Amino acid sequence: MSIRRRLAAVALAATALLTACTAQQEPEELFDNGSPEPGTLRVLASSELSDMTPVLDKVEKDTGIKVRPTYMGTLDAIDMLANGKTDGRYDALWLSSNDYLRLRPDAAKKVVSETPIMSSPVAIGVKPATVKELGWQPEQVTWSQVEQAVRDGKLTYGMTDPARSNSGFSTLVSVASGLSGAQSALTDADVQKASPRLKEFFKGQKLTGSSSGWLAAAYDRRGTVDALLNYESVLKGIPELTVIRPRDGVVTADYPITSLASTDAATREDVRRLTEALRTPATQRQITSTTHRRPVVASVPPATGLDTSRRRELPFPGSRSVADGLLDAYENKLRRPSRTVYVLDTSGSMDGDRLAGLKEALNGLVGDFRHREEVTLMPFGSDVKSVSTHVVNPTDPQTGLDAIRRDSDALEAEGDTAIFTSLEKAYEQLSADRDMFTSIVLMTDGENTAGAKADDFDDFYRQLSSRQREIPVFPILFGDSDRAELTHIAELTGGRLFDAQKGSLDGAFKEIRGYQ
Q1: Of 178, 281, 435, 502, which sits most exposed with the smallest number of CB within 10 A?
Q2: DSSP-derived secondary structure letter, 350
Q3: How much is the pTM?
Q4: Distances from the Cα of 262 to the Cαs of 4, 27, 81, 106, 256, in angstroms?
Q5: What's the rounded Cα separation, in Å, for the pair 251 and 246?
Q6: For residue 478, is it left (φ>0), alpha (ψ between -120 and 50) or beta?
């Protein structure tokens, strides 16, 4: 299968996930997986497990147990569990890993058993031409060599956001462990020791996102990065990449099915039967051949093409404070900073509850802005009304955050709806060539009624520089906005549509954070 056909399939799966998992209300509001039914297990699952549908269909035929999955990010799922918001709503978890869960006593006490189903290590997928240029022998590559290639300006890459994706978090832990030389569980001292090298390493990250599928599609669309860091199973789905497991070790996802303490004995028995069915040799062969994950049953060999040489399993952080400290360092110090233009519909139709909801959503988002982040608010009606840019300065973050809140509170609703004219001005605002994660967020509650038309914007976009055409637009479907119109904008610019008509505006803004 060609890369474009393969990525089209990935994108289709990602679109299905988007409906269920993005632009949502707060997780506890949206992710209610229905009432309990005999023979049906309501499972809160990591997003990438959507590729297990054929396997689960076969298990249902064999056992009569139906899995009703709800897909979301691993760390968000653990928050729900810890806060008691899975009680009575879900029968099991199926996350890529329970490593972070075990660091949280408030979450760990809510599970009673876990059984690994399959595994996939963190890996690096590199363009073959880049492997040749670097002179790498794939089986001998170390994390230090990867860092040196980045430092020399010879390697750029994409990876998912560690704060929202377990593949990103596992990659972050792998890199931190590898570069610190930690011989046991990561400590604060290890992270501190490795920080200078980590900062150099993350200068090579040019793509970010919450979704492995979106990241792969962005990699293909732009063609400007040399590699992707993700689970081996994801990278094996892109045949044109050389998949490398660093010789000094990686973190591995083991995808345990986990029973919840809030369930009854009959439900736990169904979870046990499901687990048993997934670990039969026949099902393990199906899993490894269709998903590129590795079997956990010793008698079943990994699928053809999966390297069977041994690698050290890198230690996971030994405490939640270390894990959270590593995440905080990545977000606020190590990664490239972000800049985002928020193109906000404040036309007359936004008056009343809609404008109040927008202000509330923006104010709720302020606490999530990272140090060094550049935030531009661009409210529009019949034309752009104002442009205000604020930077969250690490030495005085509160000043920038307070200014964003003041500008949000001052928004007023009036005028028509000039969507495309406003987008053009957003791109003009971002014309400077700066080394930042750059994106545009478009929120509108209606159709375009003033200024440039869709065809005008298409012509404008095609005339942008190649660097500007890499800036994605993330439209939010809200109120009476036109789905087709906003879908076209997302597809044209390489962004993604978020549906706040079925959820909440604050949920949409927060979900987009993983792409900024």
Answers
A1: 435
A2: G
A3: 0.87
A4: 44, 19, 10, 13, 18
A5: 11
A6: beta
Distances in whole angstroms, Cα of residue 106 to Cα of each of 79, 98, 110, 312: 9, 13, 7, 30
What CA–CA distance (Å, rounded) separates 101 from 285? 28
**Identical fold between 3-118+254-295 and 337-515:** no
SS (H, E, C) 25-65: CCHHHHCCCCCCECCEEEEEEEHHHHHHHHHHHHHHHHHCC
The end-to-end CA distance of the chain, in Å, is: 31
Q: Which CATH superfamily is domain 337-515 in?
A: von Willebrand factor, type A domain (3.40.50.410)
CATH number of 3-118+254-295: 3.40.190.10
E strand segments, 347-486: 374-380, 388-391, 437-444, 473-477
Express each pLDDT in 109-159 by its tens digit. Answer: 999 999 999 999 999 999 999 999 999 999 999 999 999 999 999 999 999
Q: Which residue has the tokens 């669309």?
A: 221
What amino acid occupies position 408? S
Beta strands in 280-352 (DSSP E): 294-295, 338-345
Contacts of 184 (CB under 8 A, 6+ apart): 315, 318
Contact 221, 494 (CB under 8 A): yes
Domain 120-252+310-331 top-level CATH class: alpha beta
Query: What are the pLDDT digits (tens) for 403-414?
Result: 999 999 999 999
Residue 84 structure tokens = 């008691």
Q: pLDDT confidence of 39, banded at 50, 70, 90?
A: confident
Render the burial of 236-256: b for 16+ CB within 10 Å, e for the rest.
bbbeebbbbbbbbbbbbbbbb
**β-strands 437-444, 473-477 pairing:** parallel
Instruction: Look up residue 212 and give its two tokens.
Output: 């492995």
- Give me the phi and psi of 500, to 5 degrees please: -95, 0
Where do we find the tokens 């492995």?
212
Domain range summary for the chain, segments of one domain joined by +: 3-118+254-295, 120-252+310-331, 337-515
pLDDT, average across residues 170-185? 90
DSSP state of 384: B
